[in-house]
Amino acid sequence: MIKLKNFISFFVSIVVITLIVLNIDMIFDKVKDFVYSQPELIIKPANDYTKKDKYEFVKQVDEYVPYNYDDLVNIFYSILNQGWDEFTFYCPAQYSECLSDIEKLSYDEVLLSDINNFVHPYNSYSTVKTLYDDMGEITIKVKHLYSDEEIKKIDKTIDKIIEENVTYNMTDEEKIRVLHDYIVNNTRYDVTRANEGTSSYDSSRMLGLLYEHYSICSGYADTMAVILDKLGITNYKVASKSHVWNAVYLDGKWYHLDLTWDDPVSTSGKDILDHTYFLIDTSSLAEIMDNDDEHVFDKKIYSELK
Asked: What residue ranges of the chain have pLDDT lower than 50?
């Protein structure tokens, strides 16, 4: 009788232990499924300034699950390109370096700025913040360079400039030239901001160029980028370590367009209109650069400009 009771106790113990082990495995599987599942993403509509042009360095994506560093770059570009203020996505289990790569990307200010150059100026960022946690949730928060009210004001002014200077029978090159000349003739380079980093003019943005008539390279490049987009001409901004200008796709070829350097500062204070940097190819740019390191750009990033 005692042996039978011992056997029954032993059998019950085995059953209980088995059930516990099975439950632990089930619980572990459920936890694992929760941790590595992809929550549903909130996809907002793209705004009116989203570019549909195709570039070699960055690509607009429809899927927001990264599997490598290039995917993170394209997701970041797509967030900016569509004008979103905030977007959250998640690292998949298969991408073990996801968090370390997003940290690397978020601290690479040069790369972030380069990505920003492929975005319409109205969607470009003033500041961008990347938040992430150990569970693989990543949130990008964007503060845009231009407010909605500023965009309305700028749009109205640029539309008027185009209407007053462009005629229907002009070629695209003629349209670009007349608007290039208008900007140069109505703008002075802000030497104070360039030399000291500060100025009484809003010259780093289009507002300084259009309404105060003072600008530095970013203001020139942004204004021309908006004009080119309104003309339906494919373009982006290209940057060196210390300068930014426009890249323009015209008649099947890519060209450089630098309004800043076509608006040189003279010792006499006299306004000068130049066309040295008007729609020139990269080989021509190299010939006139001499000791000019301000036009040395990364051809892996701006690869259309071969």
From this structure: 3-7, 11-12, 15-16, 18-22, 27-36
The helices-and-strands tally (H runs, E runs) of the chain is 10, 9
Handedness of CA 116, 121, 127, 128 (dihedral sign): negative
| Closest residue by Cα to residue 140 from 92, 89, 93 | 89
Helix or strand holding residue 197 (H, E):
none
9 three-class SS = helix
CA distance 290 to 261: 14
> Across-strand partners of 129?
141
The C-alpha atoms of residue 26 and residue 49 are separated, in whole angstroms, by 49
pTM comes to 0.85
26: tokens are 């089930």
CA distance 150 to 159: 14
CA distance 49 to 121: 9
The span from the CA of 251 to the CA of 234, in Å, is 11
Number of Cβ within 10 Å of residue 54's Cβ equals 9
Could you report the per-residue pLDDT of 148-173, keeping only the tens digit for each?
999 999 999 999 999 999 999 999 99
The rounded radius of gyration (Å) of the Cα atoms in the chain is: 28
* Per-residue pLDDT reduced to its tens digit, 212-222: 999 999 999 99
58 contacts: CB under 8 Å, gap ≥ 6: 73, 74, 77, 115, 118
